[in-house]
Amino acid sequence: MAILKLTRAWRALEEQTTIYVILPNEIQRDKKLQVLWLLHGLGDDGSGWIRKTNLEVLTKHTNLVVITPEMNRSFYMNMKDGLPYWDYLVDEVIPEMRNLLPLSTNPKDNFVGGVSMGGFGAFKLAFTHPEWFSAIVPMSSVIDLTELPKIMPDYRNIFGGPGPAGYLEKMAANASLSKLKQLRFYDCVGDQDDFKPSNEQFAAYLKNDLGLNVGFHTSRGGHDWLYWQRILPDVLNWLIGV
Q1: Measured between alpha carbons, how far is 165 from 170 in angstroms, rounded to an integer?
Q2: Helices (H), the chain
Q3: Which of 75, 115, 117, 131 is most buried per CB count within 10 Å?
């Protein structure tokens, strides 16, 4: 495997930021690569997946590229008092990385996942553009934005006030149901995670109320890298048969 660290200026942010990429050693221009767009959590950056897990080892014998953009403390939003990170992700990161690397644009080869804040971002990206992906892996997601004051002292930078209630529920309800039903969901959270109740409730809403293909998985663990590292083999096996 190879690790690519790409630092460059971006129009949307008007500043330089970094994207980390795990690449297969053998890249053939006539064979497009599968892609996992993997999103980081609050207080972390894209390097966390490389520094804190054995993701590089787990993906060694695959055709999978893992791309982890740096999204700061944005909650994958165009921030009220900050930068337009959502526009940066959707309008620049994804198309630009596809220009730079031989990435497949076929939905069956594109997956999105993330932890905590990144799990929220994965849901948001899948609900906004379900036609881009075939599978979503939200892990220990922040579901209820009204809980942000408990975990984020600068939460007002995102919305200018408290986070709106039912944000993801409304996104899912307003998305194309036929397209959402084409997605596979591997939704997981640790048994000792304070966010487990909201994750469980949201998974039930997606599965029972909307009829989506959601598998909800819980196991021993908290809201930390020990849990996320431990579940990675199962996640990747479900995703691409590692």
Answers
A1: 9
A2: 48-51, 55-58, 85-87, 94-100, 117-128, 148-151, 156-159, 167-174, 177-180, 196-204, 225-240
A3: 115
- The whole-angstrom separation of Cα 228 and Cα 230 is 5
pTM for this entry: 0.96
| CA distance to 6, 35, 43, 62, 236, per residue, from 58 (Å) | 22, 14, 25, 9, 8
Residue 141 burial by Cβ neighbours in a 10 Å radius (0-12, 13-18, 19+):
buried
* Alpha-carbon torsion, ordered 99, 100, 102, 103, to 10 deg: -70
Cα separation, 131 vs 141, in Å, equals 22
SS3 assignment, position 234 = helix
Type of residue found at 203: A
- CB of 75 closer than 8 Å to CB of 106: no
Tens-digit pLDDT profile for the chain (242 aa)? Answer: 889 999 999 999 999 999 999 999 888 777 899 999 999 999 999 899 999 999 999 998 899 999 999 999 999 999 999 999 999 999 999 999 999 999 999 999 999 999 999 999 999 999 999 999 999 999 999 999 999 999 999 999 999 988 999 999 999 999 999 999 999 999 999 999 999 999 999 999 999 999 999 999 999 999 999 999 999 999 999 999 86
